[in-house]
Write a structure and sequence with these properties.
Helix content of chain A: 25-40%
Strand order of the largest sheet of chain B: 3-6-8-10-12-14-16-18-20
Number of strands of chain B: 20
Radius of gyration of chain B: 21 Å
Oligomer: heterodimer
Structural class of chain A: alpha/beta
Distance between the termini of chain A: 17 Å
Strand content of chain A: 35-45%
Helix content of chain B: 10-25%
Radius of gyration of chain A: 21 Å
Shape of chain A: globular
Number of helices of chain A: 13
Structural class of chain B: alpha/beta
Largest sheet of chain B: 9 strands, mixed
Largest interface: A-B, 41 and 38 residues
Largest sheet of chain A: 13 strands, mixed
Number of strands of chain A: 25
Chain lengths: 477, 403
């Protein structure tokens, strides 16, 4: 490898993700303050309408009433997740109401953070709009004018509650991800903060991706951003989410919520490359509801975190709706990535494909956990699930636990999974062409994950590859 | 969660069963321990997704089924001369040491509520002992259940370099009022380089609930091949399992089920790769008609010492009606990277093109469907080396299709 590339790796990747900033905040809820009073304070701080406060309080009650998920076969150990130790809310020291729309208006430390992550560059080069979240709040949001003119809305969730109240009231944690869905969805419903709101009107195609980047910078905090995407009939949008947090000794909790409404014949692609620090518990709920002839695509790369439990799901509600999942998980030392996909075929002629790849090394553990449900009446539905696992060494573990619930006979369901180690022959072959062992393996991994990277815009594909290189560096052999 | 069945059961009953078999003290103790343990034990694992048990064993009325002192059955247990095929009472008489060593060595009697119940109450059983170097075919065990409940126990021990083929059948005979319960535990201890084929064909009436757990330990270079056919019963919970404990050991689990009416099959095929160079092949095919429901779980667990593992699994379900329901969960648990493993599962209906093709050649639609169903079982039937067994299974399939 050339020294240029080495340089790029070092300065770019490592510096990009591992630097941290002195904390400075304007409003900080203290650890263990997960009670009604805090919820009221957060809601008041955000100047929310009464109905939102009510939803938060109801979610809080549901959270306290629900047990921790503990009895799933092979699930990550959550015993360390003590909600009492989480700082639920930090508003950075900047007036974020509505965010700033000029990058240079951001405080220098925040600017610097996102500069290092490469967000402004990407915005200039390839994106329709970009939002950046620091701690609990969106600090920057910008949308290219030409999309705004067509009625596309991209703003932070807090602003959406104020300015698009009816849309939010109708869709926010009602049908798609109700707070009662699971304990962490309830937690999220109670203390959510920040995140993105995307609205694409009928017949509008947003040709370039919209991006949001989430950064956790404070120790021991929880981040609970909410993303709500509404794509009306015949519209099309690609939303990309990136996340990172530096390494701290205490654990962090990320418990986001994503709700996507895919209108008739609309097409939404949701791509995420998450690289939380290795002390972060990443416990998310992401779901889409897809109307007639609509298409939902989930592209996920799960790299970081200590433990992830995340199963993006799609409800194929209208006839002829389609869902595609492409996921890749990479677990290194001490990591347990429990991820997969869920699809509910609730209408006839619906289709889904799930392609899941995982790589585990140095004792990392990856699980594919999936559910394909075909309801009675969803005739002529078809689904195919493919899981491939690549293992580097004998300390690592890889499990696939797909579940298939089929209530309809006129269907076509297929599941396949394979597990293997990196092919010695392939390595040998590449070595005989002059590559060293590490590079050969890296090349094989790059080939293995290609189905994912080719779905991503080039910047993200590059980032994903760099992250994987970083994970693999020096530990092969 | 707990069931109430143990409330009806007493030590006296267990002692009476034990006396009837003229059992040694140790076995009675084992039974009484199992009876005692009932209180604290859970039902066997079933596939769960959060909020849902795919087979709810806790809802079953075990107190109503279990009638421990009135067990009645007809039993044939025969085999060629070179191999010892004994009733449990004979085996306790003639080969007590063998039974003592084998009993509970593969399936822990207190593994779950139903294994403990079986251990406390079994009244009939078969022991098959195959001495070193002996090749034996055609060991046949037929059990016809004539009572409300029946608890059956089978132990197979094969010595070094021996081989044996065992065919087991369960049916119901005399009618009884209401629902009934059949429970069978099978333990196989396959010695070094021995070869066991164990086929089982369950065709009890559709008022009967069955629980069977069949498990084998395979020593170095031993092979345990299972064939598991389930046709009868109201509800079946069956698990067929091999622990590949010795280097180079192998196992094949071939399963077939055919559900109609409101039958429920919860079938599992599980294999643990615990040593180097082990191979497993799991093949299951099932057909569902009417309101029938199947839950399939396949597990390939590759341990960290299981270098050079090959493990394959495939499961296919064919659905003939809209009301039927099929669930499948083929799991791969991999702790060793020097592994070639794959699994696949499919669910589908009769291929419309095939159907069209056949009807266009003058075959009636019903006949065409039946031929395709029979064809669907062929890959499983082909894996069955024993002709008699293959014929029996395909006859049962054909019979059901004629209904």
């Amino acid at each position: 490898m050339s020294s240029d590339q080495d340089h790029l790796r070092e300065t770019d990747s490592e510096a990009r993700f591992e630097f941290k900033k002195e904390e400075s905040s304007a409003f900080r809820a203290e650890k263990g303050d997960l009670d009604e009073e805090t919820i009221r304070l957060i809601s008041e701080d955000k100047d929310e309408p009464e109905w939102m406060l009510e939803r938060r309080l109801r979610a809080l009650r549901q959270f306290h009433a629900m047990p921790m998920p503990t009895d799933w076969p092979g699930q990550p150990d959550l015993s360390e997740v003590d909600i009492g130790q989480i700082v639920p809310y930090i508003r950075p020291d900047i007036d974020t109401r509505g965010g700033v729309d000029d990058w240079t208006d951001l405080p220098e430390e925040i600017q610097d953070t996102f500069d290092k992550l490469g967000i402004p560059e990407a915005e200039k080069n390839a994106l329709s709009g970009v939002g950046a979240q620091y701690e609990s709040e969106i600090v920057y949001q910008n949308m290219q004018e030409r999309w705004e003119e067509k009625g596309v809305v991209f703003c932070d969730m807090d602003k959406a509650v104020q300015e698009h109240e009816e849309l939010v009231k109708e869709h926010f944690m009602t049908n798609c991800v109700p707070a009662s869905d699971n304990k962490f969805a309830a937690l999220h419903g109670a203390i959510w903060s920040g995140g993105s709101f995307v609205y694409v009107p009928e017949d509008v195609t947003v040709e370039m991706p919209i991006q949001a980047y989430f950064r956790m910078n404070s120790e021991g905090m929880g981040q609970f951003e909410h993303t709500l995407i509404i794509a009306e009939e015949n519209s099309e949008v690609h939303y990309i989410e990136g996340c990172s947090a530096p390494q701290y000794s205490e654990f962090n909790l990320h418990s986001g919520g994503v709700e996507v409404f895919v209108g008739e014949n609309a097409h939404v692609q949701y791509s995420t490359v998450q690289n939380w620090s290795k002390n972060t518990y990443n416990l998310n709920t992401k779901r889409a509801i897809c109307e007639r002839e609509g298409t939902m695509e989930w592209i996920s790369g799960s790299m970081g975190s200590k433990a992830t439990m995340l199963y993006p799901s799609t409800i194929l509600k209208g006839r002829g709706a389609t869902d595609n999942h492409i996921t890749i998980a990479f677990a290194g030392e001490g990591q347990n990535i429990d991820t997969g996909a869920k699809v509910y075929h609730n209408a006839p002629d619906t289709k889904s494909t799930i392609e899941s790849k995982s790589i585990s090394k140095d004792g990392g553990r990856t699980n594919y956990r999936g559910l394909v449900h075909i309801s009675d009446g969803a005739e002529n539905s078809s689904t195919s699930v493919e899981c491939d696992a690549l293992m580097f060494d004998n300390e690592s573990t890889s499990d696939t636990m797909p579940y298939m619930e089929i209530e309809e006979s006129k269907v076509d369901v297929a599941h396949e999974a394979t597990v293997g180690k990196i092919g010695d022959e392939d390595v040998f072959y590449l070595q005989s062409r002059g590559l060293d062992d590490d590079d050969a393996k890296q090349m094989i991994v790059a080939g293995f994950i290609e189905p994912i990277t080719e779905e991503l815009p080039i910047e993200y594909a590059v980032e994903l590859n760099r992250l994987i290189e970083l994970e693999m560096e020096g530990s092969l052999g | 969660m707990s069931t109430q069945v143990h409330a009806n059961l007493t030590e006296e009953q267990v002692k009476q069963i034990s006396e009837g078999l003229d059992e040694p003290e140790w076995l009675l103790e084992t039974r009484l321990d199992a009876l005692d343990a009932l209180e604290g034990l859970e039902m066997p694992d079933v596939i769960r997704t959060p909020g849902r048990n795919w087979t709810n064993l806790y809802d079953l009325d075990f107190a109503g089924f279990v009638d421990p002192l009135n067990a009645a059955e007809e039993k044939d247990q025969v085999g060629p001369e070179e191999v010892e095929v004994m009733s449990i009472a004979e085996a306790l008489d003639e080969r007590e040491e063998l039974v003592r060593e084998g009993f509970g060595s593969v399936v822990d009697p207190e593994e779950n509520y139903l294994t403990a119940l079986s251990t406390a109450l079994f009244s009939t059983g078969t022991v098959v002992y195959v001495p070193e170097g002996v090749d034996a075919e055609d060991v046949t065990v037929r059990t016809r259940m004539n009572s409300q409940s029946l608890f059956n126990y089978t132990l197979v021990v094969t010595e070094k370099s021996s081989s044996v083929t065992i065919l087991e059948r369960q049916t119901t005979g005399d009618e009884v009022d209401g629902e009934r319960y059949y429970s069978g535990l099978v333990e196989i201890d396959a010695g070094e380089n021995s070869n066991v084929q164990y086929g089982s064909l369950q065709n009890v009436d559709e008022e009967t609930y069955t629980y069977t757990l069949k498990r084998g330990h395979a020593d170095s270079h031993a092979t345990i091949n299972w064939i598991e056919g389930n046709v009868g019963s109201r509800l079946t919970k069956s698990s067929v399992e091999t622990h590949l404990q010795g280097e180079g050991s192998e196992s094949q689990i071939v399963g077939a089920f055919f559900g109609h009416n409101d039958q429920h099959f919860d079938v599992a095929a599980r294999v643990w790769h615990e040593a180097e160079h082990t191979t497993a092949d799991l093949v299951t095919r099932g057909v569902l008609d009417d309101d029938a429901r199947s839950v399939y779980e396949g597990v390939q667990d590759v341990g960290s010492d299981a270098w050079d593992t090959s493990s394959y699994q495939r499961e296919n379900t064919l659905m003939l009606s809209d009301e039927s329901e099929a669930d499948a969960s083929p799991k791969l648990i991999i702790n060793n990277h020097d592994t070639e493993a794959s699994h696949s599962a499919t669910v589908g209906q009769v291929d419309q093109q095939d159907l069209f093709y056949m009807t266009s050649r003058g075959v009636s639609p019903r006949m065409a469907r039946n031929m395709l169903v029979e064809g669907f079982f062929v890959p499983v039937l082909e894996e069955i080396a024993v002709e008699e067994f293959r014929d029996d299974l395909s006859d049962l399939v054909a019979e059901r299709l004629r209904e």
